[in-house]
Amino acid sequence: MFHKKRTTSTEHLENAIKKGTGDKILIEDIMEAMNAGGFGLVLMFFSLPILIPLPPPFPSLISIPLVIFSLQMAIGLKSPKLPKFISQRTIERSILASIVEKSSIHLNRVESLLKPRLTFLSTGVFERIIGFLIFIFSLLILLPMPLSNFLPGIGILITSFGLIGKDGVVIIFGVLVGIIGVIVTTAALLLGVKFILILKNWLF
Predict the structure, then answer these.
(1) How many domains does the chain have?
(2) What contacts 72, CB < 8 A, 6 or more positions away?
(3) Which of 41, 43, 79, 139 lies 20 to 30 angstroms, CA to CA, from 166?
């Protein structure tokens, strides 16, 4: 018996590039092309730019879809959706093509390592728990702090690959990285507040 070959993330993204005509693509059309990949694919797509060093507030703006998708996962929606004020915006076709071209080799390499393990972690109540954790990671990315987005972003990216491949081992690893990011960011916040209080007392 022949098994149907699973569509890769790169192929989903290439389908998104083919959507519509002209130099710009509606985010709604990109979402439609990626919906077959579920939450894992859209989380992966929107977490990739977070790993690029960008000045505030760009990381915070980019993370808004992650907050929306992870919350949808947490409440048990079956597929990702974006509000119209985001989905009706456009992105340059050339920019999307460049992202796919530069990331395709790495995406295919990572996906070749994935295999179904502990698949229950990507379904049902466990998927909702993971959605809640990613929601926490995404909220931290919203903070306008230097490097506060890196570890949570890496955690979301790794977890998204685990969801795509139904690989529970990768999901667990991604969640752990995200939790470490939460701890590091929280510690940095607390130390920052403490430093400000000490400085205030010293000056005044």
Answers:
(1) 1
(2) 39, 80, 81, 131
(3) 139
- Provide the phi-psi class of 110: left if phi over 0, else alpha when psi is between -120 and 50, else beta: alpha
Summarised one tens digit per residue, pLDDT across range 139-196 is 888 776 655 677 888 899 999 989 988 899 999 999 999 999 888 888 877 776 565 5
Nearest Cα neighbor of 172 from 141, 143, 133 is: 133
SS3 25: strand
Residue 189 within a domain: yes
Bridge-partner residues for 91, per DSSP? 25
In a domain, 43, yes or no: yes
pLDDT in tens, 67-111: 999 999 999 888 888 888 777 887 777 777 777 777 777 777 887
Distance CA 189, CA 49 (A): 24
What DSSP string runs through 33-98?
HHGGGHHHHHHHHHHTGGGS---TTHHHHHTHHHHHHHHHHHHT-SS----HHHHT-EEEHHHHHH
Which tokens hold the place of 1? 């018996």
| Domain assignment of residue 85, given as a range | 9-203
Tokens matching residue 185: 């960011």
**CA distance linking residue 98 with residue 198, whole number of Å:** 47
